[in-house]
Automatic annotation (TrEMBL):
Keywords per UniProt: DNA-binding, Repressor, Transcription, Transcription regulation
Domain HTH lacI-type per the UniProt entry, residue ranges: 5-59
Organism (species): Amaricoccus macauensis
Record field: compositional bias (Basic and acidic residues): 323-333
GO MF entry, a single one: transcription cis-regulatory region binding
PROSITE patterns reported in the protein's UniProt record: HTH_LACI_2
Pfam families: LacI, Peripla_BP_3
Name by which UniProt lists this protein: DNA-binding LacI/PurR family transcriptional regulator
Transferase recorded as keyword: no
Top-level taxon of origin: Bacteria
InterPro entries in UniProt: HTH_LacI, LacI/GalR-like_sensor, Lambda_DNA-bd_dom_sf, Peripla_BP_I
Region span, Disordered: 322-342
UniProt keyword Metal-binding, yes or no: no
Amino acid sequence: MPRYASSTDVARLAGVSQSAVSRAYRPGASISEETRRKVFEAAEKLGYRPSLIPQIMREHRSYLVAVVVGGLYNPFYAQVLEEFARRLQAVGNQVLLVHVNSGYSLDEAIPKLASYRVDAIVSALAVLSVEAAAALARLRIPVVAFNSAVRNEWVSTVSCANREAGATIAEHFVARGARAFGFITGPLDSPASEDRLAGYRDRLRDGGYPAPQVATGDFHYEGAAGALRTLGAGGLPDAIFCANDLTAMGAIDALRARGARIPQDVMIAGFDGIAAAAWGAYDLTTFEQDAASMVRRAVEIVTATTAMQRPAGEIAISLPPRLVERGSTRREPATPSTAPEN
């Protein structure tokens, strides 16, 4: 094992007391500039770095923020993780990455997070249950969750306006002549997927259009083919909204393998705005989430809550995604005569 230089080693080399070494690294502590200079010169020679443990004990903070993820296969969440690491470190925190399985549930990670004495938790994709939220509130650990339906005084949320996006894509499809609709979901316990479907279905109903056929997906490229078999059982829709871009890309490839033309036979739209959606092979219409703004707002909540060391309250921030129209839905707008009769 490596042996790290200690404050005792620095004190011996600098010819000062061990307490002087501690004071040299503490802002505002009483110490002469000459003594501080001796300490820093000795520390540089020895490769000494002060331990954070005394600061943690003194301030009752670990400066660790756990980022819980369960879906790094999706480039959107890889981008989110990188943004979190950059922004959290910029305000003096370190990131503890925790991966979860079991349907992306956060519940299984709570004992580990509590043992690390994290200052806060950011749930980037893991599903936050009511029970998990209550357990974290009892532990007094502030949580910021992406796209969560669960909130309490210790749990805040930052999300996209998922329902509004669902309504927007329904209007987009209708305006381009669609009359039969489909939706491929994410995992059944995904609040984001549920909200996107709800907005889509409600806007179609309000416009007098038939409810969309719904098939269960899993946010993966590979899951789209099986979901399409379910949708096709009742006649293939001419417009399909997918809960994320990976599913939409899988759907495009599966449909083309069956001889369908995109968008002439079936229009496809996704969600997330990943870079691959713009590739010529897909040219995918999608909703672009502003990852930088979502992360910035989440880090602002974490910073305020940990500084106060008390709950921030039930903060809920919703940011609008941007519809990016591309070739996968680029049909001529429908004429009024093609609208359904009520």
